Amino acid sequence: MTSGADARPLPGTRRDRVRGRLGLSEGFSRRQTRDLDGLRAVYAAWCRHVTFDNIRKLVALRTEPAGPLPGASAEDFFEEWLAHSAGGTCWPASNALHALLRALDFDARRVAGSMHDIGSPNHGSVKVRLANRDWVVDSSMLTNAPLPLD
Question: Which domains does the chain show, CATH number per domain?
Answer without folding.
Answer: 4-148 (3.30.2140.20)
